[in-house]
Design brief:
Blueprint: E1 39-40, E2 46-53, E3 56-62, E4 66-70, E5 80-86, E6 90-91, H1 95-100, E7 114-126, E8 129-138, E9 141-154, E10 157-167, E11 187-197
Length: 199
């Protein structure tokens, strides 16, 4: 991919295609309780990623995404998160590169326009730490993903922060000449910060 220029300012906003479906915390949830967080504040949320290209550390972000959450800190095991990422919203800081990653060799956005994560389990680890497990579907391929998440309550707001790594080859991201890990490393590191609100 071309070398990036400084990225533009991130503007998170919900897509509206889902009913607010990193990121993250949570399938069927119980009726909302006074402590349950069920809405996302997109302006205070972000999903970024980092990778290495020809030995140089690079990064990018999603300029928009759609998230649905249901999380009660008193019953985390009943929580759920679903996240949908429009792959046309990838921003690696350079217009030509943003266009290139939509091609068939990379994300093949024409055929697979959206990446989707759906949680299957949330495990409490103590001290406001949790393990979020689920399935990531990307470019027509699904694999299990687990991410450590920290939760910070701020009155009627809560912030979920976490990260995980994926192997791009598992999802056929970067085919042909780009499958050479000497050009672009196999590991992609994803970080998320999701701000959720009570009803």
């Amino acid at each position: 991919m071309p070398q990036p220029e400084p990225p533009p300012r991130f503007e998170a906003r919900p897509l509206g295609a889902l009913a607010l479906v990193a990121a993250l915390a949570l399938g069927s949830a119980p009726a909302a309780s006074a402590a349950e967080f069920t809405r996302i504040d997109p302006a205070a949320s972000e999903i970024t990623f980092a990778y290495t290209q020809m030995g140089v550390n690079m990064d990018g972000r999603f300029t928009r995404f759609d998230a649905q959450i249901a999380f009660d800190p008193a019953a985390p095991e009943q929580g759920r998160a679903v996240l949908e990422l429009p792959l046309a919203a990838i921003d690696v800081g350079f217009a030509d590169a943003n266009s290139e990653v939509q091609d068939k060799a990379w994300f093949d956005v024409a055929q697979f326009p959206v990446a989707r994560f759906e949680s299957s389990r949330i495990t409490a680890l103590g001290d406001n730490r949790f393990e979020l497990s689920g399935t990531l579907t990307l470019k027509g391929t699904s694999h299990p993903i687990s991410a450590p998440v920290t939760w910070t309550g701020q009155g009627t707001r809560a912030v979920f922060e976490g990260s995980f790594s994926l192997q791009r080859a598992d999802y056929a991201i970067g085919e042909g000449q780009w499958s050479d890990f000497r050009l672009v490393a196999n590991e992609v590191r994803v970080r998320f910060r999701i701000t959720a609100l009570q009803p």
